[in-house]
Amino acid sequence: MKHLILTSAAVFALLNTAHADDKTLSKNKISFSKQFISASKEYEEKKYKEAFNIYYTAAQKGDVAAEYELAAMYHDGVGVEQNIAKAIHWYTQAANNNHAQAQVELGILYLSGNEIKQDYAKALSLFGKAAQNQNDRGYYFLGRMYWNGYGTTKDLNKAAKYYEKAASMGHKSAQYALASMYESGAGVPKDATKAYVLYKQSADKISWSAYKLALAYLEGNTEIKKDIVQGMKYLEKAAELHDTLALATMAKIKYHGLYNQKVDKEEALKYYELAAQEYESVIFQDNDLYHARLSVSKHK
To answer: Which of 25, 159, 172, 251 lies 20 to 30 A from 242 at CA?
Structure first.
């Protein structure tokens, strides 16, 4: 769950500049009471039980921000024994009071159905409310609902519209989703240039974006000029983000010395082992690496 715990300095900064964005603050009913500030300070100092107690008192008095944090702490079992029913209660309370993040978190619970009875209609409604509050995650999940046709008729045009909103706000998964749509022409006019711009925007956090760019630079295409140095940088990033294909590709490159890279069989086996840990069937994708791994295992 995403906590919105702010440092005490950040809280005071928001309070001091609240007049500049009163519309947004009132729209989301963000409340930074003295108790909330005190609880945030305790949480920042990892005094979780103390923070929980103060949030609880504030939430009982109708502090919406505290309601959300209380829900998150119950959900994650931080500062209190985990209690999903109480987490859902407080998420619902905060969501009903128009807290955008609570609307998103509650929507995710209804979408997944792991901890509450699955209800796509409720999830769609909650994501819609969060989107009305101009929340990037609300826009993103609304896009996913329309992409998959969950709780509504599948509509790729609407999916693209909401992904676009979230992507423009810096939401990495939305940037990747929209990039894929532009690359394939699903729900939007096919546009490889826009696709690669979005892949680049999201590559620092989304392994699939980094891996897409790695392959594009290593091989070159109509949009991307071949650049092995750039390709290896993106491949390393994708591997760092634990992308299975990136780890397996890096292993193959290191083992066989592809793309003018120095052969390093020991390093290759490290990548190969990591790939196998992520997805066991990857060990059969390269005969030489497979037998080298077996040989190392026998000598351990």
So the answer is: 159
